[in-house]
Specification:
Blueprint (H helix, E strand, L loop, with lengths): L1 H4 L5 H13 L11 H12 L2 H14 L3 H25 L6 H8 L2 H36 L12 H16 L9 H12 L2 E2 L2 E2 L4 H16 L1 H26 L15 H6 L2 H8 L15 H30 L11 H8 L3 H35 L18 H17 L2 H26 L3 H5 L13 H13 L4 H8 L5 H24 L3 H15 L3 H25 L5
Membrane topology: Multi-pass membrane protein
Organism: Sandaracinomonas limnophila
GO molecular function, one term: amino acid transmembrane transporter activity
């Protein structure tokens, strides 16, 4: 059974299956994407909900120092991007990290990874749809069109606000004295129609945009590409406007202290910052629609990461330079808010209007990615055949696209933005870890290295990984291990301490194999940095993540294990 769980699909087999698929009439997709289109897809995916919403709370937690966290996370993503590019140039198939894991780590790992990519794409799109809804509602308000609060937010936020505000109202506090979020949530829950004792609070604009984007993705890659390119140009112009005008209103004294809540405050924003980079890997899901995937995908990943990192850092510095970081807590539209603070209401209106357009492009890319992964999994027999069905006219994975729309649209009606971001981030980092590990395993065979048109620069990790481990342990562990154990492995913090300890165990294992196998440094660094970022997600997110993986394992044994084409 163990051998069946870890059966691998050879590179030759994957490529030959793809060639046979393309030879079948009606089974192939249209190759329409060049390096510019792919770069724009990457920029569209990366710069989405985070720069228009989540960056505000991240800056509130960590202050201007969050800009350095963006750089650190970008470096981690760069290491990972090298590994993605290595695989994309070797296995130019739409399955992305799922296919890469199938060639290097085995079927069960590939399935779990594919299952977690549902977290990355579908749940990330839920977050983008929620953010889009917020900006859309603000835009409508600016135009004099009021949409009832109970039709523009999730039930959980409204219920929490009502529970918090009701005692305050009873004690004589005025509603106008409370924050905007609490007022809106309280009003939504209070005014919502009640059915069988349940208050109907739902985010209808989020559902509406999901339906529209799903339709666009359904009718073809060319239409999606053209729309995305236009939206990305508009998005970049808006960010240039934000930075260019905002720079004149920056107060340097707002950058001091640079990290007002210390390193703990900066690390509190890890989930949001990681979420900000989700999407650069989505480029690889379009491999079967690229003109030259083995050349263009690696280039597009590097371009997209570089462009977005520069923009994130500039926007963070301008935002915290205009608004003191403490004033950004709970602000869902920070870029529009900062211009309101300085009296530029016209610019704030432009930002809010443009955010609606810009977030649409991020939604579009995620809706492109998920169906193509499901399509590949279905071809391997791990999902029903309907998921790999190609529309005879539009040449898109029709059923998978519809299912993605359903799985994004329904949760977007009721989901909470913060919970969605945290769960999505840990699933994405898990995918990054497996891709970096897969490259290390794949390259143990010199023949595999010869098959790739993209080479990761080789730096011997033999001494670097072990040496850095010794330095880290010296800095991390105090003189008295007994006192440290009593402090960290008892009480509420013990779960997080165990997670960190397991990280050091993984670091030791990597140091051992780096020394004995002369591993390449860049994939090893990608592994370590992504594992470290996962440790900062908190035990509650880890618990949800583990439950999610267990559900995936149950589904695999109930369906995929017996129907896998490698077993037949």
């Amino acid at each position: 059974m163990a051998s069946g769980l870890f059966r691998k699909k050879s590179i030759e087999k994957i490529i030959s299956d793809q060639q046979e698929m393309e030879a079948l009439e009606g089974a192939s997709m249209v190759r329409n994407l060049g390096v510019r289109d792919l770069t724009f897809l990457g920029v569209a995916a990366i710069i989405g909900a985070s720069i228009f919403s989540a960056i505000g709370q991240a800056s509130a937690n960590g202050g201007p120092a969050v800009s350095l966290l963006f750089v650190f996370t970008a470096v981690a993503c760069l290491f990972t991007a090298f590994c993605y590019a290595r695989f994309a140039a070797t296995v130019p198939i739409s399955g992305s990290a799922y296919t890469y894991a199938y060639t290097s780590l085995g079927e069960i790992i590939a399935w779990i990874l594919g299952w977690n990519l549902l977290l990355e794409y579908a749940i990330s799109n839920v977050a983008v749809a929620i953010s889009w809804s917020k900006y859309f509602v603000d835009l409508c308000e600016g135009l004099g069109l009021h949409i009832p609060e109970y039709l523009t937010m999730d039930f959980l936020s409204a219920k929490r606000a009502f529970t918090e505000v009701q005692p305050l109202i009873n004690s004589g506090k005025q509603l106008s004295e409370l924050s905007v979020n609490l007022r809106e949530g309280y009003t939504a829950y209070l005014e919502a129609p009640v059915f069988l004792g349940w208050h109907f609070v739902a985010n209808l604009p989020a559902l509406f945009i999901t339906i529209c984007i799903t339709y666009l993705v359904y009718i073809g890659i060319k239409e999606s590409k053209n729309m995305n390119n236009a939206l990305v140009v508009m998005k970049l112009l808006v960010i240039a406007l934000v930075v260019g005008i905002g720079a004149f209103y920056v107060k340097v004294e707002n950058w001091s202290p640079f990290a007002p809540n210390g390193i703990a405050g900066v690390l509190k924003s890890v989930a949001a910052v990681c979420f900000a980079y989700i999407g650069f890997d989505s480029i690889s899901t379009t491999a079967e629609e690229c003109k030259n995937p083995q050349r263009d995908i690696p280039r597009a990943m590097m371009w997209a990461l570089g462009i977005c990192t520069i923009l994130y850092v500039l926007v963070t510095l301008v935002l915290t330079g205009i608004v003191p970081s403490a004033g950004l807590a709970g602000i869902e539209d920070p870029l529009a808010y900062m211009f309101t603070i300085v009296g530029l209401h016209g610019v704030a209106g432009v930002v809010a209007a443009s955010a609606v357009i810009a977030l649409t492009s991020a939604l579009l890319v995620y809706q492109l990615g998920q169906p193509r992964i499901w399509m590949t999994m279905s071809r391997d027999g791990l999902l029903p055949k309907a998921f790999s069905k190609i529309h005879p006219k539009y040449r898109t994975p029709s059923f998978s696209t519809i299912m993605t729309g359903v799985l994004v649209g329904l949760p977007a009606l009721f989901a909470n933005l913060e919970e969605v971001i945290n769960l999505s981030s840990i699933g994405t980092l898990f995918a990054f870890v497996l891709v970096c590990g897969g490259v290390l395993i794949l390259d143990l065979n010199p023949e595999n290295q010869k098959k790739s048109k993209f080479k990761i620069p080789y730096i011997n990790a033999k001494y670097v990984v072990g040496g850095s481990l010794l330095v880290a342990m010296y800095l991390f562990y105090p003189e008295s291990i007994g006192d440290w154990f009593n402090v960290h492995f008892t009480g509420n913090a013990k779960a997080d301490s165990w997670i960190m300890s397991l990280f050091f165990v993984a670091w030791f294992v990597l140091a051992f194999f780096s020394y004995t196998k002369n591993l390449s440094l860049i994939p090893v660094l990608g592994l370590l940095v992504n594992l470290y970022l996962m440790t900062q997600m908190g035990s509650a997110n880890w618990e949800r993540f583990i439950y999610w993986c267990l559900v995936g394992v149950v589904i695999y044994f109930a369906y995929g294990y017996k129907r896998s084409k490698l077993k037949l």
